Amino acid sequence: MVKVRAARPAEAEDLTGLVMRSKAHWGYDAAFLAACAPELRIRAGDVTARRVVVAENGRGEVVGVASLEGTPPRAELGLLFVEPSAVGQGVGRLLYRDVLRRAVELGVRRLVIDSDPHATGFYRAMGAVPVAEPAASAASPAAEAGGTALVRFEAAPVPLADWARAWTGGGRAVHLGNVGEFNAQFADATLDREQRPAHHYACLAAFYSPYPAALVLPRPVPRGWTELVCRQLGWTGVEVYDGLLDADPGLAEAVRARPALAALLTGSGLPLVPWGRTRAFGRLAGRPWRDGELRYESKSAAHGLFGRILADGGHPGIVLPRQWRVDGRWAAARMLAARTRAGESTVLKSEHGVGGSGTTVLTPARVRAAGGARAVLRRLPRGPLLVEEYVGGAASRGDECPRDLTYDGFVDEAGRAHEVGGAVMEVADGCYRGATVGPGVVPGWAEKSLIAFGAAVGRELADSGYRGWFDVDFVADGTGRLAPTETNLRLTGPSIAFMVAARLDALRGAGHLVRISDRVELGARLPEAQLDELCAALARGCAELGAVFVPAIPTGAFEPAPWLGVLVAARGREVLDAAEAWVRAEALAVGAMFGPS
Predict the structure, then answer these.
(1) Taking each helix axis from N to C terminus, what angle separates 299-311 and 444-464, rounded to the nearest 10 degrees?
(2) Cα–Cα distance between 192 and 167 in angstroms, integer?
(3) How many angstroms separate the CA atoms of 431 and 197, rounded?
(4) Is residue 261 within a helix (H) or strand (E), and if so which, with residue range?
(5) How many CA atoms lie within 13 A of 250 on its CB side?
(6) pLDDT, tens digit, for every residue of 507-562?
(7) If DSSP codes are grouped into helix, strand and coil, which group holds residue 315?
(8) Would you call 112 helix, strand, or coil by DSSP?
């Protein structure tokens, strides 16, 4: 195992030799290397002054060297060289990330990198951004002798976001993928009794915090998946405990049924983070279950909460759609028919639901096409129904006008509400499909209202006794106002994107946009080995585009209608959109590999 340590002054001559061997690896001639030698020499007095560190393998051999030079807020990556025999083994990546980490600790906010032309691909892959400013050494004697010019990159080192440190106390955590267990608390006809989809979504447990120590999963997951996720997000030492359930959705009870595992997980001293709170999780974690703490998971209870907040005024950018709880199916049919005759669109909702399940948007044309209100009701799941006014139109602004937005936050164990931020969701016919987070994603006309109202909901949830993650979903109306539609008292797809954005910003520099896409269709059912090959290819292809690919949900790849959940990250919207489109096209094209030659 390679580790990083401070260099020693007595190693200066040997380190200079390593640097020159590494430079020669690119095929430069003797004259060029001789011209480079004065610039690349490391003297004993430089080791401390230039903050030189080395990478050392398990045999005690030095296989790389790096330096962090200058004073905050601007510093330079003066050296980063790897022994030729160790190239391709992750040594350069380890050293670069160590430099970025130390830069954050020193207060550096601009890290300048003058790269050899042969190393530009490496720095792009590490998240550094090429800049037009010429490299300081481009006109040096070495550059003139070799006819080469260094390429300037920059990175913006940032610490882990404040909210992310508060979420798990700034450290690692144990993640419990209890999606099925959480859903099963709600006796709702829209939720699958066997929770098969929920067990796929439990794979998102990899991302319940920015840096897990262990993942606890109901179904077996491909080893190649966990290895690739760890590589893309710079994780090491992540333990995986999978395949704990056959059919029953109770993951916390499955852990408790294994006393040694339960003691290992709960006795580690690390936070135990679930998808959502359950009574069984409370027993596992030793946390008292508070009756009614999930009451605002109910759509009607959340609507009542929104109404109470708005009754106090102070949220002019928020409008609350009217909602009625009907006494039966025929009452719902009569109300739907009356609204249809009046030319009004309607939203029918189940009391609980996941990802838009149990939510149906009905325009008058759709009701008539279905054969009338009673015919519509016969096709919907049984159970209590809510009838809600449809909020029509997108906000009329000159900039981008997303229709569906969300606010994410959490309430810590002390009852303090924390803001995470806003996201834009992709919703099709009432069903959630994904979300995008990052700087500038939420348009300016919506941001203030969204943040203020989301924070107010967080305070009310804290006062009600709720502890944990939550979000508030909104739709935009035709006048630039936001209508809150529901709360989710659990982690969500957008929350996963926030976690990954926080990790990538700390790992690669600030400014990442992250998009989670729940279901990317595959052109063929993929066994584990072929899935690993596809994900590795998608990671390489996205890196070439300047993006980061992370497979989020791999276990749907062998379903009869195969699919994959993915995360894509980039620093610009155009690159993000291009990377997602390419991933979708490549995923659909995998069927060709099984066709005739």
Answers:
(1) 110
(2) 30
(3) 14
(4) helix 259-266
(5) 13
(6) 999 999 999 999 999 999 999 999 999 999 999 999 999 999 999 999 999 999 99
(7) coil
(8) strand
